[in-house]
Design brief:
The protein is built from 17 helices and 12 strands. The strands form 2 sheets. Strands 9-8-7-6-10-11-12 form a 7-stranded mixed beta sheet, sandwiched between helices. A 5-stranded mixed beta sheet has the order 1-2-4-3-5. Helix 8 crosses helix 15 and helix 8 packs across helix 16. It is globular, with a radius of gyration of 21 Å. Bound molecules: glutamic acid.
């Protein structure tokens, strides 16, 4: 490994040992780009890598809100404006009890390169709170969102920083936050958020975009290997927004998603989550707030496997679509033993680094990285920003076609970047190299800061 790259990784490890997820994300990206740093000694001269691992700025703030019984609660809010060299900071907000600075920074760091890969003018950012939306009433959610926005509104804007959803933040939360932003600012400025409702400037296909994009990307991988998406059997985790988009598109493309998972275990549906009724039921399950995937098994009479993950199922394609570090070494070994040929990450950093490196070593397996595969979500967010700037509304067909083109291009530039460095069909390294290149160029051009 390049000595400068090594020193930066050591530096991050020493400084941020209390943020293991962030260290993991940095190590994964920097390891991949080492051959590019070999070729560009000027990066070290301006200390580009120590700059790129340090957020431009990061806010933490107090969020106090009142529950339905009149009791007050205090949560921590975060917003990390990681890198603005390509455009306004862009990235979602995650509301989940395990959120702390390390999670926000890992997500923000990944977002920089993901957003670069989309080819759109967006920088990288991320935010959230340790607020747990599970079991909260609508009024409690609204009061929390309003309080969160009251603290943050002065630091964001359509040309400054554009938040969106992530885990625990969907259309309802975006609506409450945008409403509070508008009230405080006294301007319309709806380009300040993406993932908005259609009635106030949201984009068609945005809710589906991450899942649809992942399926378009998978289609490209299969094409490269001379295979067809039709008839492929897929195991996914999660039953949230991303999983829903995957199931919808899989249905259209003739592929079959046979598993969904939740904190309680996973379901196996041999017929596939392949009818309108089943796909719509996923929305119902999510909106119920019960957070139990067993409900699906009960409703459709399929197998439920408690307290386990779907990674030992023999399928054609594995797509972890729930959350970080879902697949560790133990699961990776099962995946290899089952002779799985396609390991397509969808959730942000769903694989531990040891498992990821192990899977990438397998001769007969294609590994595709989340920051490329799930980029369709933020990609369509960026199309939503474009529509808001134009004050126009694009048709479903137009957005879907732009998304498809974007995903084809992300696969292509990743493939080409890996080839340029003699790495073969290495989509993980290729995505990091291609994503990093543009950010590095922009940072170099904008001088030292
Ligand atoms: N949270 C999503 C992501 O991880 C979407 C972000 C956005 O649309 O800004 O990319």
């Amino acid at each position: 490994m390049n000595a400068y790259v090594k020193s930066v990784i050591e530096n991050v490890k020493a400084k941020h040992s209390n943020e293991p997820e962030f260290v993991q994300a940095v190590e994964e990206v920097l390891t991949s780009i080492s051959p590019m740093v070999d070729k560009h000694p000027e990066y070290e001269k301006v200390d580009l890598l120590n700059r790129i691992v340090e957020p431009e700025r990061m806010f933490t703030f107090r969020v106090v809100w009142m529950d339905d019984n009149g009791n007050h609660h205090t949560n921590i809010g975060y917003r990390c404006q990681f890198n603005g060299s390509l455009g306004p900071y862009k990235g979602g907000l995650r509301f989940q009890s395990n959120v702390y600075a390390g999670i926000i920074k890992f997500l923000g760091f990944e977002q920089i390169f993901k957003n670069s890969l989309t080819g759109m003018p967006i920088g990288g950012g991320k935010g959230g709170s340790d607020f747990d939306p599970a079991g909260k009433s609508d009024g409690e959610i609204m009061r929390f969102c309003q309080s969160y926005m009251t603290a943050l509104y002065r630091y964001i804007g359509p040309d400054v920083d554009v938040p969106a959803g992530d885990m625990g933040v969907g259309g309802r939360e975006i609506g409450y936050m945008y409403g509070q932003y508008r009230r405080l600012k006294g301007t319309w400025e709806n380009g300040v958020f993406t993932g908005k409702g259609l009635s106030y400037g949201g984009s068609l296909i945005r809710p589906e975009a991450t899942g649809y994009g992942a399926m378009y990307y998978l289609t490209e991988v299969l094409k490269h290997k001379g295979e067809d998406i039709k008839g492929k059997i897929i195991a996914i985790s999660g039953f949230g927004n991303v999983a829903w988009g995957i199931c919808k598109k899989a249905m259209q493309l003739g592929a079959k998603v046979v598993t969904l998972s939740g904190p309680d275990g996973y379901i196996y549906d041999p017929e596939g989550v392949s009818t309108e009724e089943k796909v719509n039921y996923m929305l119902e399950m999510r909106n119920s707030g019960r957070n139990k995937v067993k409900d699906y098994a009960d409703k459709f009479g399929v197998k439920f496997i408690p307290n386990s993950k779907p990674w030992s199922e023999k399928v054609d394609v594995i797509m972890p679509s729930a959350m970080q570090n879902d697949v560790n070494m133990e699961w990776a070994k099962k995946i290899v033993d089952n002779g799985i040929k396609y390991y397509i990450e969808v959730a942000n950093m769903p694989t531990t680094n040891d498992a990821l490196f192990y899977l990438m070593e397998q001769k007969n397996m294609v590994v595709a990285p989340a920051k490329a595969v799930n980029a369709g979500g933020v990609g369509v967010s960026s199309l939503e920003m474009a529509q808001n700037s134009q004050r126009l509304v694009w048709t479903e067909e137009k957005v879907d076609e732009e998304l498809r083109r974007m995903m084809i291009n992300i696969h292509k530039v990743s493939k080409e970047a890996a080839e340029e460095y003699g790495l073969g069909y290495n989509l993980v390294a290729g995505a990091n190299l291609a994503g990093f290149k543009k950010v590095a160029e922009a940072m170099m051009a904008q001088g030292v800061f």
